[in-house]
Write a structure and sequence with these properties.
By secondary structure, the protein is an alpha/beta fold. The chain folds into 2 domains: about 5-45 and about 155-330, 3-Layer(aba) Sandwich (Rossmann fold), CATH 3.40.50.1100; about 50-150, Rossmann fold (3-Layer(aba) Sandwich), CATH 3.40.50.1100. It contains 11 helices and 10 strands. A 6-stranded mixed beta sheet has the order 1-2-10-7-8-9, sandwiched between helices. It has a 4-stranded parallel beta sheet with strand order 5-4-3-6, sandwiched between helices. Helix 3 packs parallel to helix 4, helix 6 crosses helix 8 and helix 7 (about 195-205) crosses helix 8. The longest helix is centred in the middle third of the chain and has 24 residues, at about 155-180. It is globular, with a radius of gyration of 19 Å.
């Protein structure tokens, strides 16, 4: 399968910026670079924009007229999916895990502005997936043609978007690193529904970079992340008819930074948000990238990443979430 032959609905502003964080690097004693997928442009950016280019194109190829997906009440994925649906002339349905909170802010406010149909499943993630299926069944009964996007857009097409993102990164980074005779020692990324992590890992393997990808899980237990990343990489490799071989040490998951639960921030995440904002002028969010950055800072402190290393932090976006959880960031 030739990736370039896959249909693609243009949404993202690419390539995204590769940023140096000189003041943070000086404080930590490692070189920290940041891949700015918070700046993908469309609908306030984030990693989901890359995935939706392929998912929306697939939906249009199948003559679908409504995108259906799910997530938390402050889901970046639901917000971006709803916006992409409108851009493509479709409707959108978002199914939330939780009950209505009474506060319409952050991503939820944007969902309302976009006119997405919002369903509160008031259930756990597994039951919510069944509610998403039922919503699709109801739409079909109404004569509609829904396109179901799993939570987080973590499908083969979503993974492929991040294989290409790695190619983009390496084209930006390698000439600079080679000129300085240094190597990229690790990537740190938020691991949620696992599609972005799987894509970055698969991309490193496909393009021969073999850079360790450290996922900081913000929602799922480590064992579940290991299984999901492995399965997504395998399914994508089969779809592309490529050999992508993972050994038991390739999938790296850090699970010490989740805190009480998904969508509940931590003191370490709050500190990371303030630190990066005040010395680099870059915003992280309390649900995803704040926890991932807290992980990076702790891994440096514990010397998992050695002094003098070059570390890439992949910023997956989520800025509207700051306004959905103001009590977690002030």
């Amino acid at each position: 399968m030739d990736i370039s032959a896959l249909p693609r609905f243009p949404l993202a502003t690419l390539p995204t910026l590769l940023d140096e964080l000189p003041r943070l690097s000086q404080e930590l004693g490692v070189r920290v670079m940041m891949k700015r997928d918070d700046l993908t442009g469309f609908a306030l950016g984030g990693n989901k924009v890359r995935k939706l280019e392929f998912l929306v194109a697939d939906a249009l190829e199948k003559n679908c007229d409504v995108l259906v997906t799910g997530g938390g009440v402050q889901s970046n994925h639901v917000r971006t999916t709803a916006a992409a649906a409108r851009k493509a002339g479709m409707d959108a349905v978002g199914v939330f895990f939780a009950s209505p909170s009474g506060e319409v802010n952050g991503n939820l406010l944007l969902d309302e502005i976009l006119g997405a149909q919002l369903i509160y499943a008031q259930a756990d993630k597994h039951e919510t997936e069944l509610v998403i299926q039922r919503a699709c069944d109801d739409l079909r009964a109404q004569g509609r043609n829904p396109y179901l996007i799993p939570v987080g857009g973590s499908t083969k097409l979503g993974v492929i978007s991040y294989i290409l993102a790695v190619q983009e990164l390496l084209q930006q980074m390698l000439p600079q690193l080679n000129a300085q005779n240094i190597s990229l020692d690790a990537v740190v990324i938020t691991t949620g529904s696992c599609g972005t992590h799987a894509g970055v890992l698969a991309g490193m393997k496909m393009f021969g970079a073999n850079v360790p990808v450290h996922g900081v899980t913000v929602s799922r237990p480590r064992a579940e992340c290991l299984e999901r990343v492995a399965r997504l990489v395998q399914d994508t490799a089969q779809f592309l008819e490529r050999d992508i071989v993972l050994d038991e040490n390739d999938i790296i998951i850090h699970d010490a930074y989740i805190g009480e639960a998904y969508a509940k921030s931590t003191p370490a995440a709050r500190a990371a948000i303030h630190r990066v904002a005040r010395i680099e002028g870059i915003f992280l969010d309390p649900v995803y990238t704040g926890k991932a950055m807290a992980g990076l800072l702790d891994l440096v402190e514990r010397q998992v990443f050695k002094q003098g290393s070059t570390i890439l932090f992949w910023h997956t976006g989520g800025a509207p979430g700051i306004f959905g959880f103001p009590q977690d960031v002030v």
